[in-house]
Structures are given as structure tokens and as C-alpha cells.
Amino acid sequence: xxxxxxxxxxxxxxxxxxxxxxxxxxxxxxxxxxxxxxxxxxxxxxxxxxxxxxxxxxxxxxxxxxxxxxxxxxxxxxxxxxxxxxxxxxxxxxxxxxxxxxxxxxxxxxxxxxxxxxxxxxxxxxxxxxxxxxxxxxxxxxxxxxxxxxxxxxxxxxxxxxxxxxxxxxxxxxxxxxxxxxxxxxxxxxxxxxxxxxxxxxxxxxxxxxxxxxxxxxxxxxxxxxxxxxxxxxxxxxxxxxxxxxxxxxxxxxxxxxxxxxxxxxxxxxxxxxxxxxxxxxxxxxxxxxxxxxxxxxxxxxxxxxxxxxxxxxxxxxxxxxxxxxxxxxxxxxxxxxxxxxxxxxxxxxxxxxxxxxxxxxxxxxxxxxxxxxxxxxxxxxxxxxxxxxxxxxxxxxxxxxxxxxxxxxxxxxxxxxxxxxxxxxxxxxxxxxxxxxxxxxxxxxxxxxxxxxxxxxxxxxxxxxxxxxxxxxxxxxxxxxxxxxxxxx
Length: 490
Hints:
Radius of gyration: 24 Å
Largest sheet: 4 strands, antiparallel
Strand content: 5-15%
Helix content: 40-55%
Number of helices: 19
Number of strands: 13
Distance between the termini: 14 Å
Shape: globular
Structural class: alpha/beta
CATH class of the largest domain: Mainly Alpha
């Protein structure tokens, strides 16, 4: 794979270019005023409980577990959005109308609890939530551990989606031997596994099911397919349709489907008959085909260009020249060089000539005053890519050592949170972790935990900044692996 194909992927995903700014580094500990600021934002998660509808009525609370996703649930400075969010808020209004309390001052509340995709059902069974949402498909395997309410949509088609350079596929059997990336926790993985069994009985080569990182949502994988880095994926067709206006190179295969009879519904714990009955009543007036369901479908599927910002594309030619600089400085400052390179792309598209309105310069978008600070002490960052990358790497190490010197942190999470400090400032990182801790989340895990607090405090920018870097990193790793296989003749 040519280097510029790597870069094309990153250009497609690029967003704004925040800069690392010079500042007197704050204390590691929060001040009393900062603690009070965090306390005012805490939304404690109720303790785990396993109750049916009567128990929910006593607390006037329904907890919905949701995956953090641009399509299903996202937060920006307290503003929640997405398909699962709108369905949950509709449930809240419906409960208050259908099951009111004697006192008009008492109201039903719906609480959204962001949860990793692969933890939705386990956390539901544990009693952390009452509903698992997020476009879940009813499958045989899932029915072994949970029940599903009345579906919001039936006849959902699970479609093969390929990119611009994929081989021609005209029928289901043409997928024999094809490499397809899906999350292991998804219904697509389960259905592809079943399909492989039928291929085996027919004497066909199995589909090569490549497990995707569980931190990647379907839209993330579609972005990679769109530029040809990932060969193919399988998603619900409505998700591919929602993203296709932005990801214009996607090929959605409609000549056949992996499944064409899937049903999208909320999952609930077993032995919850009363709650199942309540949710069935809700679904009848909110599913696809009803006024509400059709409006929701139109908003999130038919009008995706209004929801997702268009991205820019430009040609970059210096990728190969920069690899050596990142390898050298990542070794010196103990980072994964692909992680730092992904950060460099997020900051400037690896453009040493980049200049921000704040005065940040070069590939790593540092202020010269930050680089000149005694803690970094590197000059010439405006002229030399080597020096610029060195300064960014050293500043990252400074942030990690001062604010993330915690043995409970894994190397990956330390790096991800250093990115957050680089983007939002170390003072905000302290608040992110403290708010996560006080909200019952894990302050040592970025995805699904500290990132939720970041979204509440500073909005989507830092969440997207770290998330995009991670996507770029995964893409680099995939491209690197493919190059190794080609070199071996595999």
C-alpha cells in the first residue's frame, strides 16, 4: 500500500486543529474552587439494582445503557443527541403521560449511562441499567442471556459494504475467502460465523472475519472502508445509508444481504415481564411506520449531511520522510511512534508549514513559547520538522510524567489522556478524571469513562481529538500489518 493512501484515510477523518499552548503548568491537585466546580457537574450513577417495572416506579427512574456513538448517543457540553437519546427521551414523556404519579410534582426520569459496546449486555444483566440500547439486533445468542422488547423496526437488512478498490461481488457465495472486519460483540460477527458454517457445508472457503477494535463504532469502520484501508464490513443498511452521503466511495451491496429479517429492539433483563409489557406499548407508538418513528428515521438516515460535517481532502507528500523522525523521538520519550504520528496528523495533517491563529506552528502545533519553556527547551520548531516533532514528543512526556504518574494507568490510557491534556490543557485533564471518579466512572480508562466527563466539561472537541487520533493509530497498525504480509508474500 502506498504511503499516500494512509494519508488519504487521515484526511477524510481530519477535524479542527487545536494547539498546545504555553502556560504555567497547574498543580497536580485540584484547588478548592476547582473541586467545587467539578462537584456541581457530578451526576452520580445509581447503584446496581435488578427490579421489574414496579421497582422502577418506586424510584421514578429508568436507566438506559447506551454506546457512545455519533449515530446513537453523544454529548457536547451537556447537550445529548442521537437515535438512542431521542427514543429514551420519548420514553420519559410517554411514561409521564401513561403512568403518571398521584402528585403532579413527581415525574419519571430517564438516565443515560454510556457503556462500551461489548459491555452493554453484561452490565444490563448485572443491574447497572434497565435497558440496553444502541441499535441492538435480536439474535439467538443474545436471547440466551437477555430478553428483547417489541422491535422498533423489522426486516432490517445487514449489508456487505466495500470500498473503492474491492473485488466485484455479485452474490453471497462471492464472499468466500473475503476479508471482512466487524466487532466481535456485534450481531454481524455472529451471523457471519453462521454463514461460514453454511459455506463449509458447500465446500467454499470461509469468510475471513477480522475482529475490529471494540472502541470502533460502525461509522468508524465505514470510514476506513471508504478509503480502501479496510477491505469490507457488514452493517445494518440504514447505518451505511446514513453515512454514504459523506463517505462517497462506499459500495453498499443490495443484490444480496447477510440477513434481511433482523429486528432492532431494546434489550432488558430476563424475568422482567411487567417492564416488557410496558415497553411493548411504547414501541407500538414509536416504531418505524409511526409518525415518531418516521420522523426519527428521516432525521438520522435521510438527512445525514446536516448531521455530520463534511471533511476536507488535500494531497500530502512527506509522509515517508517523517516516519524516521517519529520513530527516533518516540523511542527517546517512550511512546508508540504510530501514536505520535497519528497525533501529528490530527494536529496538522503532518504539515510543517501549518500555522494556527493562536500562533502554534508545525506538525505538532506547538507555540514557540511552549517549546522554549525550560520544561521542553527546544528551539527552531518553526523551521525544522525534526525539532518540531521532538518538542511535541517531549511536551507529551512532560504532561504524562507530571499528571499521569499513576501505576493503575495502562500505557495506552496514559497516552490517550496525555493527548487530552495536550489538547484541552492539563488543568482540564485533572477535572476530567475527577469528574469521572465522582460520577462512578473509572478515572484510569479514557474510552467510555474519562471521555464522558471531558464531553460534559469542554464539549466534543477533545473527545473527537483523542478519538480521531486513536482511529488514525488503528489505521496505521492495519496498514503496517498489510505491508508486512505483502513483504512476506502473504
